[in-house]
Amino acid sequence: MKTMDFPYAPFIIAFLFLMVSFPYIVPDLWMDEVISFWEFWRLGKFQEVFLHYPIANNHILFSALMWLWCKFLGTNCGDIFLRIPCIAFAFISFLFLFYWGRKRFPYTGIFFSLVFCFSPIYLAFVYQLRGYGVSLFLAILLSAGFWEFQIKNYRQGFFLSIPAILLLPGIMPSNVLIVASTIMALGIVFYLRKSREWWVLAVLFPFLILGLFPYFMIWKQFLLVLKDPLGWESPFSALGNIILALAIHLGILFLFLARLIYEQKKLKKRISPQYPCWILFGVSLFILILSLFMRQPSPYPRTYLVFFPLFTLPFMALAEELYIKEEFKRIGKKSLLLILACFALCAAIYQRISYSLVQNQIAKGLYPQNLLMQYYQNSHSASQLVKDLEIESIYIIGDFHQWLTFRHYWVLKGNNPDYVIDARNRKTVARITEEPLNLLILASNQQKAWECVKLEKQYSLILWYGSGMYKLFSLTNN
């Protein structure tokens, strides 16, 4: 379907995009966002953002953007206003995918925007106050730049690729993997063509080196952080999570491709493979797997979300190649609306199922955090709990997964942060629990609450207030 035949398509898609995005825009900040808020965005001077790297949470260039945004807006402005930069990048990404996809894939280009706009995997991270949304936007530019290079449109290729190559590493150091994948894939394509296009790589490579410059300024801090990495113990589990997430991300496109492949076989038409895109896919997959198995523990699966635009591109090229042009007359506006409804409905159903599964996990004291499910999704419990509390001077011992977010809203309300204690701080917890009847315990269930205080069973726990993941328990004598 030529999207240019439907002038209202971008407005309809944008509206549906906003509707399915809403649950990801309005929830409370979660732990990593809160750490970034207090550790980096509230630093006194702008240059400190680039020089302060105690933990890997500092997505440096994104932190710099948020530092400027917080200076402009203030830090007690409401979560949805804090997320405006992420919302802006999400919609810029949509507009680029829609119009560039329409230009380069005139028959199936609409799917390029739909695959991302209604991907529950993409939506779960693009609005986070972390570097993922900006990284995904730049990864989309990088994949588009690769396409321009492989069709020998060098000017457009440089225009799209250079900003991405320059900025991606400065957001997250792991982003260097997709830059390396793209440059390596281009090198292989140029070699197989036996053409004199090596000068393209000579132009691109210096920008990769420049992109690493923020880490040269904090080299000792950076090496210290690398010595104590966090992640998944099993690289096989991490790889499985990534593959399953990619399958969900591309699910409807796969169904569309299956139908096209069936039609092509029936008509016995010859397909010319888009081999440069599959080289990009293969090189990216190889580097992804290599990096998973080279480090222990393996990086978190969300680290590899930026590969998804590169993985999507070859399937879009295949769909364009397979599309039977003779079928055009049968596709009208009703068909487009049906496709849009299908994407939006699938995204909404996934959200509902995922939320239900997450709540079941939380009730058991588990905190799923991967590409498929996030324990903090669509949660408003922390801010609501703080809003409802009238107390200001009672100690609250919090489980690791709750206390940072709770303390964030506690402090924004004007309360003393010293009253909210991390349960892992055993010395402070031991001191406070000398008077166990004058404290509250923040946890998702009673078992987690007992783990926070580690007291003898001469006391009983009762639910004092709260719901969902954020419940306050009090101790009473047996």
Structural class: alpha/beta
Number-wise, the strands total: 5
Low-confidence stretches: none
Q: What strand order characterises the main sheet? A: 2-1-3-5-4
**Count of individual helical segments:** 23
Rounded to an integer, what's the Rg over CA atoms? 25 Å
**Terminal Cα span:** 71 Å
Return the domain count.
2
Strand content: 5-15%
Largest sheet: number of strands, sense, barrel closure? 5 strands, mixed
Mean pLDDT: 90
* Helical residues, percent: 55-70%
> Which of globular, elongated, flat, extended, rod-shaped describes the shape?
globular
Elements, N to C (H/E): HHHHHHHHHHHHHHHHHHHHEHEHEHEE
What is the gist of this entry?
This protein is an alpha/beta fold and 478 residues long.
What does this structure look like?
The protein is an alpha/beta fold. It folds into 2 domains: 3-358, no CATH class; 381-477. Helices cover 63% and strands 6% of the residues. It has 23 helices and 5 strands. It has helices spanning 9-25, 31-39, 48-51, 60-73, 79-82, 84-104, 110-117, 120-126, 132-150, 154-171, 176-193, 198-211, 213-216, 219-227, 235-249, 251-267, 275-294, 308-322, 333-363, 381-388, 400-412, 426-432, 446-453; strands at residues 395-398, 420-422, 439-443, 459-467, 470-477. A 5-stranded mixed sheet has the order 2-1-3-5-4, with helices on both faces.
